[in-house]
Design brief:
189 residues, alpha+beta, 2 domains, three-stranded antiparallel β-sheet, elongated
């Protein structure tokens, strides 16, 4: 028997017994077997009770394992709703001191594919306005671009993280190069 590439498409571990349909509990022992038929390779998972009735049937492989519930997905450090709600709140306040934060929040939403940049306009005074559209609601957001310098980004980033309730990033420090034992001895002489 020669198997083709499609034969190797074996389904992952089941969450229920293939015979009785009972869901497996966390840490419950179960039995699995691999058979080959007209449909190719087939994996079946059985509770201990049902395994007694099917274990005598021919199989290519059979094994015993423990069912483990997958861990819950990790929480996002900055939730989209939080970023978006903070942006909306700051835009309502219309405080010129918040322009940098508003811009960074809009960029975060663009990177998360919540916002799509549709246009960049330049006003008569030279201010760039970025026109964003919300993917789900189709709302339009006009965000002034403060044209931040690289040296200003760390400060604005810390401000954004603080407003979102996170821990402020630690400032980068330059470590002194490490000396090995021989270099320290030479340095003492």
């Amino acid at each position: 028997m020669i198997a083709n590439n499609q034969d190797w498409d074996i389904r992952a571990r089941g969450e229920t017994c293939s015979a009785c349909g009972k869901p497996f509990a966390d840490q419950e022992e179960f039995h699995a077997r691999l058979t080959y038929g007209e449909e190719g390779y087939v994996r079946q998972d059985f509770c201990t009770t049902c395994w007694g009735g099917v274990q005598t049937e021919p199989s290519l492989s059979a094994w015993k394992s423990v069912f483990r519930l997958p861990p819950p997905p990790p929480e996002e450090p900055l939730k989209k709703e939080t970023v978006e709600s903070l942006l909306r709140k700051l835009m309502e306040n219309e405080d010129p001191a918040d322009l940098n934060t508003i811009y960074i929040l809009a960029v975060m939403l663009e990177r998360r594919r919540v916002f799509v940049e549709q246009d960049v306009q330049t006003r008569e005074d030279g201010t760039k306005i970025r026109v964003y559209e919300h993917r789900k609601t189709n709302e339009t957001f006009l965000i002034p671009d403060p044209e931040l310098k690289l040296s200003e980004l760390q400060h604005v980033q810390a401000e954004v993280v603080a407003r979102l309730g996170g821990d402020a990033p630690k400032p980068a420090t330059q470590e002194e190069p490490r000396m090995d034992t021989n270099e320290r001895e030479k340095d003492r002489e």
